[in-house]
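Reopening this one. Same input as before:
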Amino acid sequence: MDEYRIEDHPDLRDGGWARDAVRRAERGARLRRVRSWRPRPRVLGGLAIVVAAVLLAWAVFATRSDEPAAFDPDEPFAGTTATAWADGAEGVVPPAAEPVGGFGAEQVADAYARVRQAVVTARLDRRVVVEHDLEPLFALFAPDLRDSLRTLFDGRNDGEAALVATRADRGARLSGAEPKVRGEMVAEAGPAGELVVRTDYTIAYAFDTDRPEAVRGPLDAVAVARFRVRYAVRSGSPGVEGLWADDSAGTLHSIACSAAKRGYLAPALAEPELPPGLDFDVAVPSSPTDGCPE
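Same output, byte for byte:
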């Protein structure tokens, strides 16, 4: 029997197919997993947070045309999936509060309000995102968690800190356009009398550029972050009582990889030597490939 070699497969002998495959690979979106962070046990005691950075369900798919849509600085989200999403905090809307486990509707409504404020502050408040002032965010959490968060943001752990708050890179200018937001939150009864709220939000941030003519498409100027966070409202000692953030995971899409590795957000246009990002669909699982070189 003749020996079969993989390179003899008809598809691989088809030059056009091979070129298309290479093009698809090269056009892979810049997708980076956000690394994990575990606060020091001495700070949290038996309530240590486990922050696991895993690749979330995420899709990267080719746009309808081989050529990306033209970039319009006045409408930076035009031509992307995010253009249909809500503007800013209008996209962070809790569901109607209903009793959950042993918690009444009023308690659930209060938990939703706390979590909404945490999401808006961590991901949309320009004091945090642009000015890198974390105190408005820290103030929302239980005292024992605040101590741990201050340690996280002391400048030695920036790569992990992105799980907690989004900060634009100093070399990137966030556009005046409100970020586009899509997502949801849901309450459930947790262990030991905790009221848990799970969130899953995707936020698209538009950035300004001095050379709009050099932007290859909207995803050059729009960076996207998706985070799933488990919040919990706890009771107990004065240090423990209040809002906590537990398991957290996130991905970044269409980004400047060098900034992302340092824990900051910048658009793909900051690194034009890499291929332009493709559009995205948060409803479809993605490949586990990390588009940022190590």
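So the earlier flakiness isn't reproducible anymore. For the record, The chain has one domain: 35-270.
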